Amino acid sequence: MEENNANLKSWIEVKPDSDFPIQNLPFGVFSHNGQTAVGVAIGDKVVHLGEAYEAGLISDVTKSNVFNEKSLNAFLSLGKTEWRNTRKKVSELLREDNAQLRDNAELREKCILAQSDVTMQMPVEVGNFVDFYSSIEHATNIGSMFRPNNPLMPNWKHLPVGYNGRPSSVVVSGTPVVRPKGQTKADDAELPTFGPSKLLDIELEMGFITGLGKPLSESISTAEALDYVFGMVLLNDWSARDIQKWEYVPLGPFLGKSFATSISPWVVTMDALEPFRVAGPKQEPAVLPHLQCEGDGNYDIHLEAHIQTEKMDASLCMTKTNFKAMYWNVPQQLAHIASNGTNIEAGDVYGSGTVSGTTPDSLGSMLELCWRGTRPLKLPSGEERKFLLDGDEVTLKGWCQGDGYRVGFGECCGKILPAK
Ligand SMILES: O=C(O)/C=C/C(=O)CC(=O)CC(=O)O
Ligand SMILES: [Ca+2]
Ligand SMILES: [Mg+2]
Prior knowledge:
The protein is 17% helix and 27% strand. It has 10 helices and 26 strands. A hairpin with a 2-residue loop joins strand 2 and strand 3 (45-48). Residues 23-123 form the Fumarylacetoacetase N-terminal domain. This is fumarylacetoacetase.
């Protein structure tokens, strides 16, 4: 794909450490002067696709203007050929030798905005939200805390375990997270009590977003899965561990996770991630035929979570991990969901599950990083944290490292506000 060529340069200045060089071109939804539209990020600018379409700059790639919309859903419904052609067209428009927009001040004024002048919105209207549990390190760590006798359940290596989450509380980065209230029961207490969660945590995840999939009763094979996946975002599955611990048997996560899930606003396309595909870990025992996957199923994505309390002047990196070690990959996750004939829709969000590495500084939740509160995090402000306190802000970052450029995801942040 010419759009991924490391040598491409844009006439828009892009700093070397920018997440959004011309090789990326992620899609998002922004508002500006009371108007909401679909845009593409480049450097610290946004290309207003609604205006670009009206000006005839990209109008030959889709049948109608699906870009003056409040979400990416209409665009996602068009399918992979249109997604790919749109990114290709935008890439061509932004190349240093293309004068069409570069030398037209009036058009540039309409079509190119500063990211600092726009407000990012939820990229999609979420119809379905699923969260997987696909890191073997995370599942083993959490399992050993919640179920010391059998950390990894017998099904875990045979199917990508997941649960249906709550689409309406998936929020865009920057949305404050109000501390949830709920039922909890201390180990030595006889009865539960109701009140603000005391063990509020993060989960560092990636999420993939689908386009229009197949109708009810059809399935999707691992080989065709990526035809239905538009792109990926950073995802923080905020988790109230005390609520979760008391409620989860026998039906799994419920109110301990449904109060908020944050995603980053820019959706990095699977096409932009293509150069960063790598082999995943060997799956042993072999998985059933409908979950077998040819070729490199994983992506080399560096991930970090940063914390900043109200007493800190700058944020501190709590953990560094990588998406490439995930046991179950995106095609397997999608093939699994669709294997019973459920429908896949444009704008669905599928969380990868917490991404934990093998070392103590590469774990994807505070529950693991601080090992149930036994290894508190020491902060430069002299404070300690085992879980999040009111006023704490968490920022997830992620990027793929290319040769002299990075394909990044921007940030996914949220600040904890006191319970109401
Ligand atoms: O093992 C459990 O009972 C619970 C696990 C989680 O909290 C993890 C979850 O949300 C899935 C994941 O992020 O990997
Ligand atoms: Ca999760
Ligand atoms: Mg959640």
